[in-house]
């Protein structure tokens, strides 16, 4: 294995090679397809216990809806000054209207299929000060029907020619079926559009076969290969060997392995590069992976290599985890992060 650790001097060289290219983000169009949802936050104060049951009573002070799942990826793309197309499935409910309004507010171009048999995914977090009290999930984790697949893929075929890169965001809520994933990959290859996939731990690995890039974390690598992960086998060498096996088995050209506090491992061919994290403070990791794949796709679309694009994704993720809740990194904020290196 050709393994290298990226040090500060190399990071500065990468910085100098990419800084002048970032303005090209505005010329890129990213098509994101996958499960979408709303992240609802209910903030308040707890001053007493309910007389009805031994549970806290929250006096609500604020309600907020944010885009979640693949919609958060698409929002990240838009906030980085690029054009963002989002294709997905929603239910016939109030949450459908809410998510459409949020998408328009953030400048997303949307194409949704309405499926009355399922709700629009919504995750409600009840928060006292900065502490989560409970999370309430409204969703239906079942694959969409063939009829809905047909409509979804028709929308994808309509918008594919005008995009530069495709992101498939799999949260295992039912949109990313085997047929959808494979047709997206095959159709994109015909048009010369790269496909980057953010996988899910419970999805059969062959769904992703032939993608240009996969972005798993280490637990997802083990799960996708159906390997048990024990403390005895918890070594970087084994992690990297399994990541390369995943690439070879599924005919995937490149892989970005996220390592949490330890940064990222970048796999391209037989070469592996380790990039340490740049996060100084970590308050909330929610949405960091969404930010990474959005920046990664944009970087590749403007001609950066995988290492340079991963460097940008690392910086953007460092900014996102320093905030509470599902937030994105704007173009100006990314420029500020690059300037700090």
How does this structure look, described?
It is globular, with a radius of gyration of 20 Å. It contains ten helices and 14 strands. The protein has a single domain (2-39, 68-119, 141-340), classed as Ribokinase (UDP-N-acetylmuramoyl-L-alanine:D-glutamate ligase). Helix 2 (70-79) crosses helix 8, helix 4 (146-159) runs parallel beside helix 5 and helix 8 packs antiparallel against helix 9 (306-320). It has a ten-stranded mixed β-sheet with strand order 1-14-13-12-11-10-9-2-5-6, sandwiched between helices. A four-stranded mixed β-sheet has the order 4-3-7-8. With 341 residues, it is of the alpha/beta class.
Helix content: 25-40%
- Please give the largest β-sheet: 10 strands, mixed
SS class: alpha/beta
Mean pLDDT: 89
Shape: globular
Order of helices and strands: EHEEEHEHEEEHEHEEHHEEEHHH
Quote the beta fraction. 25-35%
CATH homologous superfamily identity? Ribokinase
